Amino acid sequence: MAARMSQNPPSLRPDLANARLSRDLDTAAPDRRAGQPTIGMVSLGCPKALVDSERILTRLRAEGYGISPDYDGADAVIVNTCGFLDSAKAESLDAIGEALNANGRVIVTGCLGAEPEYITGAHPKVLAVTGPHQYERVLDAVHAAVPPAPDPFIDLLPARGISLTPRHYSYLKISEGCNHKCKFCIIPDMRGRLQSRPMKAVLREAEKLVEAGVGELLVISQDTSAYGTDWADRPEKAPILGLARELGQLGAWVRMHYVYPYPHVRELVPMMAEGGVLPYLDIPFQHAHPDVLKRMARPAAAARTLDEIAAWRAACPDLTLRSTFIVGYPGETEAEFQTLLDWLDEAQLDRIGCFQYENVAGARSNALPDHVPAEVKQDRWERFMEKAQAISEAKLEAKVGTRLDVIVDLVEDDAATCRTKGDAPEIDGHLYIDEGHEGLTPGQIVTVEVDEAGEYDLWGRLVG
User: Fold this and answer.
1) Which of 300, 322, 366, 407 could disulfide-link 351, Cβ–Cβ 3.0 to 4.6 Å?
2) Model's pTM, two decimal places?
3) Of 115-124, 157-166, 265-274, 393-402, which gets the smallest average pLDDT?
């Protein structure tokens, strides 16, 4: 049996993603032609890295390469790595080692590629190492390892390009890099300063995706609110507002991720109330105590943030707020942690995630004094998640008896797995329909009445 490729994260397994991809390609070219070179892809890390993998595969497919979902069927394998945390680096090295053992011909790219000596020190037999979003260098490495042999009369590319997500939703990356200098983060060192894509290029890609059947666009970047602020000549002070207005006219769900709470977010929320953009904000608050935020080198106005949240909800009552936090940051006292828990009680965020602080090679936070012991970090994480779970459970219980529009992700014999406007794929909860779901199809948007709630998920029945 052919060895399948590494799996990270579990819900975006490259083997399953490539199997979907192969089905897409098979509709254009039912049989792999004789002599066609084939490439495998292992895509690790965040959705931004997944978009990079899609772009690389789209370019390769346009040059006539086939895409293999397993190691044995590939002439070479690209491993797109994550390098944000030491644990992610270790996982990337494991994936590279697995690919080398199973295939032997491996090209490494992605965030960990910014540290080539780190990779080659562990795996000297890799064919090449390139950094993040270095598409041309990746292609050059593939050409050197597996020369292209295109046949323009046979090799056809799907209209939406190569996608590693289900056909009905797609990530839309609008910029690279970040201008923030958070002490715990090395993203600016790996991916550079903010570089926004031209708005015309973003809109053109979005239009093509919608034309190809995509029903949900997930807008991503490292700092979505800052989109376009790096342009010397920009049409408005906050170009994300203009982009959101244009995207909202395409007829698809538009979901905003990684939105820093700049003042101009107040102008984005009314668009959500009007229906042009989904009423969903993914905002990385990270903590609530001003001293912890200062040690993080982040804005430290937690009280004013509560006022902002109240103003957003007044403008858009259906707004869903999601955020992630770090507990056990160096120097965090029990009183500072308690402030975070108290802040959560007031903020009542809808979707809450949490990470235990972890040193990252090259991060300035490593040098801070008073690192929190592992057992204390674990205890605080458990207490935080207990609070988050209680908030989530109460908020979902309040939805019982209401009617919601949901998008169908998966239809199986026992139920259809769906998402509400307040749930992003892979990171939030689900709504399940377990009766009368047999005729539903992925990507379909239907109305349901919620009849049961759990800690993170809902159950409902079709209306009409």
Assistant:
1) 322
2) 0.73
3) 157-166
Residue 185, marked binder:
yes
**Is there a domain that residue 107 lies in?**
yes
Whether residue 316 is annotated as binding a ligand: the answer is no
To the question of whether residue 418 is assigned a binding role by annotation, the answer is no
The verdict on residue 5 lying in a domain is no
Q: Say if residue 178 carries a ligand binding annotation.
A: yes
Together in a domain, 350 and 225: yes
The three-state DSSP-derived secondary structure of the chain is: CCCECCCCCHHHCHHHHHHHHHHHHHHHCCCCCCCCCEEEEEECCCHHHHHHHHHHHHHHHHCCCEEECECCCCCEEEEEECCCCHHHHHHHHHHHHHHHHHCCCEEEEEHHHHCHHHHHHHCCCCCEECCCCCHHHHHHHHHHHCCCCCCCCCCCCCCCCCCCCCCCEEEEECEECCCCCCCCCCHHHHHCCCEECCHHHHHHHHHHHHHCCCCEEEEECCCHHHCCCCCCCCCCCCHHHHHHHHHCCCCCEEEECCCCCCCCHHHHHHHHHHCCCCCEEECCCECCCHHHHHHHCCCCCHHHHHHHHHHHHHHCCCCEEEEEEEECCCCCCHHHHHHHHHHHHHHCCCEEEEEECCCCCCCHHHHCCCCCCHHHHHHHHHHHHHHHHHHHHHHHHCCCCCEEEEEEEEECCCCEEEEECCCCCCCCCCEEECCCCCCCCCCCEEEEEEEEECCCCEEEEECC
182 is in an annotated binding site: yes
- Structural domain including 341 reads 169-397
| 354 assigned binding-site residue | no
In a domain, 182, yes or no: yes
Q: pLDDT digit string (tens) for 242-283?
A: 999 999 999 999 999 999 888 899 999 999 999 989 999 999
- What would the pLDDT profile of 323-336 be if each residue is shown by its tens digit? 999 999 999 999 99
